[in-house]
Every structure is written in structure tokens, then in C-alpha cells.
Amino acid sequence: MEFSIQAIKRTVGRCKDQKKCYPNNMMRTSSRTMSVLYDKYMGPPFFIHYKYSYILTYVFLAFTWGGVVPFMFIMSCWGLSIMFIVERLMVYFAYIHPPMLDNDMMKQALNMLYAAPFLLCFMTTWAFSNRAVYYSEIEEVSETSVYP
């Protein structure tokens, strides 16, 4: 969706700039300054921190609820695959320049991912030990069984 919208916006801007239905010559422009020309012919900037947040969200959602709802693993894999394909297309065809990768941000994201398996263990253990999750029995609370 993002790729399509960016491609349409760029193509319409180029058509208006060159006053042609099929803009194919960047030298035939009506732009008066280089910044206006770059705005029309270059894509949006690439922000790597958004991509890391999407990846962490998919992984933590899958590992939080995957033990209870196994379909979450499939959905997260599907979401990560679509994100990978769209981001590759955006890097090749839409963004201004390749991303500037930072080792510190990558190390922080990888360190956060170490917590995901522990979260999976805790949530799965809780879900499998909780009778209310799998059985429709509700235990009545009486006054004698409540702690003072």
C-alpha cells in the first residue's frame, strides 16, 4: 500500500512538472530550485527505527500469545514476510538513498529479542495451568474460601 501510494504521488508530481502524460526526462523540468526538483523526483527518507519497531512488535506478539493461539506464529511470519518484500521494493525504487544502519540500534533490538522466548515460556505456562482458559467451569467463591 505504501509503495503504491508513493509511486503514484511521485508519478503525478513528475507529470505536472514535465507537463506530459509519461515523464521520462528529468532535464525537462519547470522546477526553479534544486530542492523543489529533489522533492518531486526523489522518494521519502528511510527511517530504520520504524522497521525495528515493526519487527519487535511482530515477534513479541507471536511469542506472547503463540502458546495459546498458535495461529499467531503464522500471522507474524506472514506479516514479517510482507514487510520484507515491501521494504525491499521501497529501498530499490522509492527511497532517496539506502538506509544508514547503526550498530548500536541493531544491538539494542537484538538484546530486546532475547526476552521473547522467556515471555513465551511464562505466558504458555500461565495459559496451560489456568483452568479458566480451557474449561467452561467457573468455581464459585464462597466466604470461607476467601483469605482474610
Total DSSP E strands: 0
- Count of alpha and pi helical runs: 7
- Classification by helices and strands: mainly alpha
- The total tally of domains equals 2
Report the sheet with the most strands, covering strand number, pairing sense and barrel closure: none
Could you explain how this protein is built, in words?
This protein has 2 domains: 1-42, no CATH class; 45-129. It has helices spanning 2-18, 34-41, 48-65, 71-93, 103-113, 115-129, 131-134. Helix 3 (48-65) packs antiparallel against helix 4, helix 3 runs parallel beside helix 5 and helix 3 packs parallel to helix 6 (115-129). It is mainly alpha-helical and 148 residues long.
SSE diagram, text form:
Elements lengths: L1 H17 L15 H8 L6 H18 L5 H23 L9 H11 L1 H15 L1 H4 L14
Helix pairs in contact: 3-4, 3-5, 3-6
Brief characterization of the structure:
The chain is mostly helical and 148 residues long. It has helices spanning 2-18, 34-41, 48-65, 71-93, 103-113, 115-129, 131-134.
Provide tags for this entry.
single chain, 148 residues, mainly alpha, 2 domains, 7 helices, 65% helix
